[in-house]
Amino acid sequence: MGSEGKLTTGWLSHPSPGEEIFITGVSGSFPDSDSVFHLKDNLFNKVDLISGDYRRWKMSHPDIPQRTGKINNLDKFDASFFGITFKEAHSMDPMARIMMERTYEAIIDAGFNPKELRNTRTGVFFGVCHSESEKSWLYDKMHINAFGVIGCSRSMSANRISHWLGVTGPSYAVDTACSSSLYALEHAFKAIREGHCDSAIVGGSNLCLHPFISYQFSKLGVLSPDGRCKSFDNNANGYARSETVAVCFLQKAKDSRRKKKFEDTTIDTKV
């Protein structure tokens, strides 16, 4: 571990000045909310973001709750901007496409041009679990082109970002089911602390594209039949599935372009 200080928890919780790790940029797509600010406005205005429409599938089944949270514009992607070919873009998991867009926005939100990260020791850590478009591209439409295996590979969701940005830090996906993005954040934090990278891009994603996945969760007895979460309520009867693709950018305080803002605020935004 090196110095004796690294053998104590203080090494993680009490870094020296300038070594603190902050979330300096954030972006995301949320149910019927195209940005963090849009989500904030919807929540403050008590908008119900769980809908029972047929944007994802047209199937009526008593064991499949129709109400889910759905993000917008799954079919939109500027492939040429990200250096993705037309054929590859059409066989990529929608999560992977949106991850690239949100990564770009999170870096911009931190005050950086993505080109500035090239050849830097920036890690990419993504929390992903199911790829609900995988069956379509690997089995049902395998004759279309040869990009399905990399377009729906969960490990590639992180590697593709590293390749696009030209960064040299660790790059991998984390799958711990519902806690995947939380563990991705922990991996990123420790990687910076331990010197494996100087900054990190952390993302998490979930899309509800196939009714049979919801059917499986329903048969497990964990989904709410009416599609409503009632946390800490006596009437709680399960949870509602929802979609999100979100990315944040982690940096040491000394490298952040938000240092002045951090010094002036009284809100603790440290990881």
Q: Could you characterize what this model shows?
A:
The chain is of the alpha/beta class and 271 residues long. The chain has helices at 10-13, 36-44, 86-89, 94-109, 134-140, 148-151, 154-165, 180-193, 211-220, 259-264; strands spanning 21-29, 50-51, 68-69, 122-127, 171-174, 199-206, 244-252. Strands 1-7-6-4-5 form a 5-stranded mixed beta sheet, sandwiched between helices. A two-stranded antiparallel ribbon has the order 2-3. The protein is built from 10 helices and 7 strands.
Principal-axis shape: globular
Task: Please provide the count of β strands.
Answer: 7
Report the sheet with the most strands, covering strand number, pairing sense and barrel closure: 5 strands, mixed
Low-confidence stretches: 1-5
Strand content: 5-15%
- What is the CA–CA distance across the termini? 22 Å
User: Structural class, from secondary structure content?
Assistant: alpha/beta
Provide the spatial order of strands within the biggest beta sheet.
1-7-6-4-5
- Total of DSSP H or I helical runs spanning 4+ residues: 10
Give the rounded overall mean pLDDT.
86
Radius of gyration: 20 Å
Protein name: Ketosynthase family 3 (KS3) domain-containing protein
Organism: Euphydryas editha (Edith's checkerspot)
Domain Ketosynthase family 3 (KS3): 18-271
Keywords: Transferase
Q: What's the helix and strand layout?
A:
Blueprint: H1 10-13, E1 21-29, H2 36-44, E2 50-51, E3 68-69, H3 86-89, H4 94-109, E4 122-127, H5 134-140, H6 148-151, H7 154-165, E5 171-174, H8 180-193, E6 199-206, H9 211-220, E7 244-252, H10 259-264
Parallel strand pairs: 4-5, 4-6
Antiparallel strand pairs: 1-7, 2-3, 6-7
